[in-house]
Prior knowledge:
CATH architecture: Alpha-Beta Barrel
Distance between the termini: 29 Å
Function: Condenses 4-methyl-5-(beta-hydroxyethyl)thiazole monophosphate (THZ-P) and 2-methyl-4-amino-5-hydroxymethyl pyrimidine pyrophosphate (HMP-PP) to form thiamine monophosphate (TMP).
GO cellular component, one term: cytoplasm
CATH superfamily: Aldolase class I
Protein name: Thiamine-phosphate synthase
Organism: Clostridium scindens (strain ATCC 35704 / DSM 5676 / VPI 13733 / 19)
GO molecular function, one term: magnesium ion binding
Number of strands: 8
Oligomer: single chain
CATH class: Alpha Beta
Amino acid sequence: MKCDKKDLLLYAVTDRHWLNGRTLYSQVEEALKGGATFIQLREKELDEEHFLEEAKEIKELCRRYQVPFVINDNVEIALAVDADGVHVGQSDMEAGDVRAKLGPDKIIGVSAQTVEQAVMAEQNGADYLGVGAVFPTGSKADALEVSHDTLKAICKAVKIPVIAIGGISKENILELSGSGICGIAVISAIFAKDDIEEAARELRGLTEKMVTA
C-alpha cells in the first residue's frame, strides 16, 4: 500500500492518556466516522503482548474504513500485524533500515525538524514527513518548535508529502495555509474531546479549507 497525498489530510495519532474510561478502539472508530484519513497507533507504555493485541484490532478497524494504519516506532509489531507501515522519529531507526525490514510496499513516515533531516529522510526512502512541532504542544515534552518558514522550506525541498504536527487545533489550523503541507497530524485536538467524531469532522473541514487556501 503506497502513501497517497489525500490519505494524509487528517492524520490521527492515538494517545491512551485521553481514554477517560473509554476504549482506544471506540475512540479510533469515532475518529474514523468523523473523517480521519490516516491512523497512527502510538503506544509508549503498553507491554508487547497487549500492544500486539490492540494493533491487530485497530488494523482490522482501519481496513473496514479503508484508511491506512501505521505503528509508531515499533517495526516488529508492524511486521507482526502486517500494518500498512511505520512512523519513526529522528532518534529511532533510520528510514533505510526500516525499509530493508518492512519491504518495498509499506508506508514509512519520518519526523523531521530541519530541511537537512527532511532531504535525508526522502533519500533514505521515506514516503511522507511529519514536521513539527509547528505550535507549542503538551503531548510531547521534548518537541522542538519548527517555524512556519522552516515548514515552507521543507515542503519546497522535498517531493514527498509533508504533514504538520504539534499543537494544531481548530483555532490555529488556518495559520498553516500556504505552507505547502498536504495535511495535519493531531492527537489531543481529536482524542481529548468529549465528542471525538464531531471534533474530527470539524477539523477535516478546516484542513480541506487550509490545504486549498
